[in-house]
């Protein structure tokens, strides 16, 4: 209490003497440097996880310090007080989620002082997103959203002086090329991080290649961005942690008997000399901080003040070390001024390995249900944002509810949230936060739909348990139910809709009263058997819907025809053995029931199964036939005492299998259901693994809906479950994975771009993050797998693709979380359900474009809203723009309220340079329909005019730089008004290009 009282007094006194400051932010506020010296940029910082061992609020308020001592509010209190004492001091703040929560709680006096610090460049925002996001399991849409959110809060609060210039991704467990591309598109000058494969880091240290130019996109030409690896993680040098969480010696000066100035200065200068040998410039950056440090910042700054003073005093004795407070942006500014050349980087930094037996590839899959829940949150967020924009929802509650979902989704991108590397109690809190935000934001959707349709009293309920075929709205009856479908994509789409229903005869009609073909299929008995699942609905009504943006479909129960007899599995039957259950299934209408094979096909896809084993044998689609065997396999998780890396356990972070994989090769019990629109093979592999193989009429892909769990642990062994697709393709060790849902990256088994990896763990060392797609091909054929959430995947043998679906482990991997990844629900192991999609095609020009189109629909399918009504008629309002004339490769990435009278719109060309081409189109009609008065173009995040973007351009090795160069917009940014000619609203997009606009509508 005395400390806090002292802070308040100090702030009050300082405020009284605070007048107009002549200092400025930006590079003009950077410290002076000295020529012919090693200039050491000391960067005070605190890395504050938005949840990990404690919840977000526990970290902020300093609760549960028995788990981890951390209190972010006190860090910010203390740092601000110390910055005000000396204008030379600096500090960087990264996570906007924590900062904004703290700032809102401050008095007006404190807020004015904070603005003074920001305006003078003494408190600098680095990174600036809502959280420091992961880079493996995140989707680019969600990353852009959470940066847009964080940067807008900073801009609205402080103006241009708060604009971050540097990406500060110091803690994520590997780094993606797409993340670097996003930084470049937002106008950042560079990025820094702290984790890299231990073999690569050692080589880069020896090669003086710790800093490089990252070519972050094969399609975007101005995507180069400076990238640097910190020398020693993100911690202070050994022996120089002055924080209360550390036990290093303080600097003792004056005439004390314990005076240690000489030894302390000697040690620091020696450290700097050693560090500088691994960097090319005469400037080096030394971070001074670590996790949740600076809670008593006076101790930190007082000792750093002494360090700076006494190190610099050595210069009169000939020392060439010059040290001062600085920031990453000031450090990079000096590097840019030097006009040096730098090595090139083209791929990414996955997978990350911290030692010979620790590939951090398990977190690509950890907590699979949470990874899916995050995707559901994004799905609803895009839906609600668009609906809010169309209906111009601007009242206070609507804004608060939308912001709440934005903020929680920002938290979910954190590198200990979407990764699944948090404690179980924290995972539950993330689920709670997201659930509450989803429920509240549905009020916005309801408000909008009551304006945008004629169902002015419609309930517009969302069903959040459709993944287990449960919907409260149709639990008792689906009679007189209207399903309102919202299409978040730009183009009209035709997709199959599944509604949980009772076994009845249904008629589905569209808004014009025309009948829509439909059929009823049974829910797999394994789903019905899930503990605590409501079994009122044991079937699903399936129909194909075509939707531009919003469409209503009306469901009625009709008298059943006499010959209607659908196969079903009752609750009573679930209590019998598997064979008894399956014997109830309808016999297949084949000429030879004893044939070795059976075929399931529609007009586009043909699947051949082996009758005796029930397994897939052959897939034929897109004019290509290929032998494809799909199965499940089990890795046993290594378990050790964690006393040394060679005995490390498989855990939340790392994937370390124990022995060879166990392929489930036994006979599969199966049931076939064949309708006109959907055909399904229900497969039962064992008591806790089953799936449905499904094809839809008119859809050229195969759907595999898997159900796994509870994973057994009776033998005290953890297990990691994968699905494998084996073909005859000659892939020669090459496969491809996506980078955060955008561009594909070529992978070569057992190889890396820059170095020879340590493949002591050859399975996990070949795993890569698969956010949306993994593929392989030979000269003629190509197989791609698309997934519904982030997972780890690989091609461990030629012609084979593998995705990890679920994992349950009994030992901690000793990287800090302190718990085994042993998820449970209802007192038993967690059950997970999800989908993998297979596309087989020829290798032809632009053939992968079909994968891109499928990827769009899988990521953002129709969102379903349910209402009770006796009619399905709807009015399409004039305020919903028609996006259908966009070129096929152009998507509406974002449309959302930006302020009380502005909208933000992003459009993207989602094809890469091998699949697509430059496209042009006009957005005048969209602008007019949205009520636009003015439109201006910004950087990707939406918070800086594109015309103001001027980011550092660095030179590659082999070039001869003669002058400072910058990246600016390669075209004239769009800026037009309602009275301008339509030609002023033309938009051109190169492959993979995203353009962002702010539309003022009143």
Describe the fold and architecture.
There is one protein chain. The protein is an alpha+beta fold and 1002 residues long. It folds into 4 domains: 25-128 and 164-352, 7-stranded beta/alpha barrel; 366-567, Immunoglobulin-like; 586-843, Distorted Sandwich (Beta-galactosidase, Chain A, domain 5); 890-1000, Immunoglobulin-like (Sandwich), CATH 2.60.40. Helices cover 23% and strands 27% of the residues. It has 18 helices and 52 strands. The strands form 14 sheets. It has a 9-stranded antiparallel sheet with strand order 27-28-29-30-41-36-35-32-33. The chain has a 6-stranded antiparallel sheet with strand order 26-25-31-38-37-34, with no helix packed on it. α12 (368-391) packs parallel to α14. The radius of gyration is 29 Å and the shape is globular. Mean pLDDT is 93; it is low at 16-21 and 565-592.
The CATH superfamily of the largest domain bears the name: Glycoside hydrolase 38, N terminal domain
- CA gyration radius, whole angstroms: 29 Å
Order of strands across the biggest sheet? 27-28-29-30-41-36-35-32-33
Report on the biggest sheet.
9 strands, antiparallel
Structural class designation: alpha+beta
Residue fraction in strands = 25-35%
> Helix proportion of residues, in percent?
10-25%
Q: What is the general shape?
A: globular
By CATH, the topology of the largest domain is: 7-stranded beta/alpha barrel
CATH architecture of the largest domain: Alpha-Beta Barrel
Count of separate DSSP helical elements = 18
**How many individual β-strands?**
52
Number of domains: 4
Mean residue pLDDT: 93
For the record, give the distance between the C-alpha atoms at the N and C termini, rounded to a whole number.
50 Å
Query: What low-confidence regions span 5 or more consecutive residues with pLDDT below 50?
Result: 16-21, 565-592
According to CATH, what is the class of the largest domain?
Alpha Beta
């Amino acid at each position: 209490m005395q400390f806090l009282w002292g802070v308040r007094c100090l702030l009050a006194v300082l405020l009284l003497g605070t007048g107009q400051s002549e200092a400025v932010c930006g590079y003009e506020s950077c410290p002076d440097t000295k020529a012919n010296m090693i200039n050491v940029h000391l960067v005070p910082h605190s890395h504050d996880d938005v949840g990990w061992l404690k919840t977000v609020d526990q970290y902020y308020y300093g609760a549960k310090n028995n788990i981890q001592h951390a209190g972010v509010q006190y860090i910010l209190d203390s740092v601000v007080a110390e910055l005000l004492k000396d204008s030379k001091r600096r500090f960087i703040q990264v996570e906007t989620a924590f900062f904004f929560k703290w700032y809102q709680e401050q008095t007006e006096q404190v807020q004015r002082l904070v603005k003074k610090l920001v305006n003078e460049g003494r408190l600098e925002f680095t990174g600036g997103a809502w959280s420091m996001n992961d880079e493996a399991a995140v989707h680019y849409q969600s990353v852009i959203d959470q940066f847009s959110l964080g940067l807008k809060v900073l801009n609205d609060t402080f103006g241009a002086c708060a604009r971050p210039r540097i990406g500060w991704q110091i803690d994520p467990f590997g780094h993606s090329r797409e993340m670097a591309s996003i930084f470049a598109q937002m106008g950042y000058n560079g990025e820094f991080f702290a984790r890299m494969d231990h073999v690569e880091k050692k080589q880069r240290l020896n090669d003086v290649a710790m800093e490089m130019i990252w070519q972050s996109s094969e399609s975007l030409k101005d995507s180069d961005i400076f990238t640097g690896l910190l020398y020693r993680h993100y911690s202070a040098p050994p022996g120089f942690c002055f924080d209360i969480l550390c036990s290093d010696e303080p600097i003792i000066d004056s005439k004390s008997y314990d005076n240690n100035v000489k030894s302390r200065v000697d040690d620091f200068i020696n450290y700097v000399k050693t560090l500088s040998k691994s960097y090319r410039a005469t400037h080096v950056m030394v971070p001074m901080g670590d996790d949740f440090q600076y809670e008593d910042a006076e101790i930190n700054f007082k000792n750093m003040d002494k360090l700076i003073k006494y190190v610099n005093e050595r210069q009169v004795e000939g020392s060439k070390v010059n040290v001062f407070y600085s920031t990453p942006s000031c450090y990079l500014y000096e590097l840019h001024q030097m006009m040096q050349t730098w090595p090139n980087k083209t791929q990414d930094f996955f997978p990350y390995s911290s030692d010979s037996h620790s590939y951090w590839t398990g977190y690509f899959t950890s907590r699979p249900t949470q990874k899916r829940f995050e995707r559901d949150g994004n799905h609803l967020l895009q839906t609600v944002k668009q609906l809010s924009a169309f209906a111009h929802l601007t009242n206070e509650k609507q804004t608060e509810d939308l912001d709440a979902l934005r903020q929680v989704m920002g938290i979910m991108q954190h590198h200990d949230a979407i990764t699944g590397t948090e404690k179980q109690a924290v995972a539950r809190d993330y689920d709670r936060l997201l659930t509450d935000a989803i429920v509240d934001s549905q009020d916005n959707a309801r408000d909008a739909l009551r304006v945008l349709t004629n169902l002015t009293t419609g309930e517009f309920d969302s069903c959040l348990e459709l993944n287990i075929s449960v919907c409260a709205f149709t639990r008792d009856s689906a009679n007189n139910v209207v399903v309102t479908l919202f299409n978040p994509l730009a183009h009209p789409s035709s997709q199959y809709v599944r509604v949980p229903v009772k076994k009845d005869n249904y008629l589905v009609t569209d808004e014009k009263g025309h009948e829509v073909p439909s059929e009823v299929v049974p829910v797999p008995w394994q789903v019905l058997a899930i503990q605590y699942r409501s079994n009122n609905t044991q079937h699903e009504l399936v129909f194909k819907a075509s939707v531009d943006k919003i469409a209503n479909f009306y469901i009625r129960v009709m008298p059943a025809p006499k010959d209607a007899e659908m196969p079903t599995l009752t609750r009573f039957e679930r209590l019998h053995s598997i064979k008894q259950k399956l014997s109830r299934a309808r016999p297949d209408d084949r000429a030879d029931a004893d044939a070795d094979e059976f075929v399931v096909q529609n007009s586009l896809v043909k699947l051949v199964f082996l009758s005796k084993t029930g397994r897939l044998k052959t897939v034929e689609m897109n004019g290509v036939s290929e032998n494809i065997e799909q199965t499940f396999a089990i890795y046993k998780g290594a378990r050790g005492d964690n006393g040394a890396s060679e005995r490390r356990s498989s855990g939340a972070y790392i994937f370390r299998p124990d022995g060879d994989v166990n392929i489930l090769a036994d006979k599969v019990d199966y049931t076939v259901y064949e309708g006109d629109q959907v055909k399904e093979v229900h497969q039962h592999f064992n008591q806790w693994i089953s799936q449905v193989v499904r094809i839809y009429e008119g859809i050229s892909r195969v759907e595999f809906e898997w159900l796994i769990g509870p994973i057994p642990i009776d033998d005290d062994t953890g297990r990691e479950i994968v699905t494998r697709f084996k073909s005859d393709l000659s892939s020669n060790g090459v496969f491809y994975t996506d980078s955060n849902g955008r561009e594909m990256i070529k992978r070569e088994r057992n190889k890396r771009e820059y170095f020879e990896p340590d493949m002591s763990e050859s399975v996990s060392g070949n795993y890569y993050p698969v956010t949306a797609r993994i593929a392989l091909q030979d000269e003629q054929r190509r197989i791609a797998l698309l997934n519904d959430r982030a997972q780890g995947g690989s091609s461990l043998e030629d012609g084979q693709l593998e995705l990890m679906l679920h994992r349950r482990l009994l030992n901690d991997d000793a990287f800090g979380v302190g718990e085994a990844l042993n998820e449970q629900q209802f007192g038993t192991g967690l059950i997970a359900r999800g989908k993998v999609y297979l596309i087989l095609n020829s290798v032809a020009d632009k053939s992968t474009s079909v994968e891109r189109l499928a990827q769009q629909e899988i990521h953002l399918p129709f969102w379903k809203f349910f209402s009770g009504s006796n009619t399905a008629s709807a009015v399409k309002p004039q305020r919903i723009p028609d996006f259908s004339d966009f070129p096929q490769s152009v998507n509406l990435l974002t449309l959302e309220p930006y302020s009380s009278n502005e909208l933000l719109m992003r459009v993207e060309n989602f094809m890469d340079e091998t699949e697509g081409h430059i496209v042009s189109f006009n957005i005048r009609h969209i602008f007019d329909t949205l009520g636009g008065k003015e439109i201006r173009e910004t950087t990707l995040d939406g918070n800086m005019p594109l015309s103001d973007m001027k980011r550092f351009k660095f030179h590659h090795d082999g070039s001869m730089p003669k002058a400072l160069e910058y990246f600016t917009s390669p075209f004239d940014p769009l800026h037009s008004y309602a009275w301008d000619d339509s030609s002023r609203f033309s938009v051109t997009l190169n492959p993979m290009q995203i353009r962002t606009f702010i539309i003022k509508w009143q």
